[in-house]
Design brief:
single chain, 142 residues, alpha+beta, 2 domains, nine-stranded antiparallel beta sheet, 9 strands, globular
Amino acid sequence: MISVAFRVILLASTLTACGESGADATTKASPTAASGDFAGDLNALGTEPFWAIKIRADGLTFSRPGVEDAESPNPGPVIENDHATWTIADGPTPFKLTLTKGDCSDGMSDRHYTLRAVLVFENKTMYGCAAMPAAIAAQPAP
């Protein structure tokens, strides 16, 4: 059985052999690299006012009633601890969406979500929930 100390030394020497120390590997990691609950497709939505953002690898789609959907390339999230933020600064519909790990209810249905959402758009802060599309579909219809 290999001791924990030996595993740490082995990992550090492997990273060094690749040209990066453990500290460098952490700081050089892309701030937009998705991990854990923020990887893959996600759907965020809010009520009163109603809004929705579909997050896909190739783009984000921002939907609101009575307004044509706005599509943007996905810049990837900036992940810090238990939250991830997507910022769309250019184009006709700039916004910032932050998802935070935690239970959430949309307040209008019996659905429960694993992420809380905060959308900043047109100097307004709106709140909602988010989850993977399959997790949302598996719950009772609103």
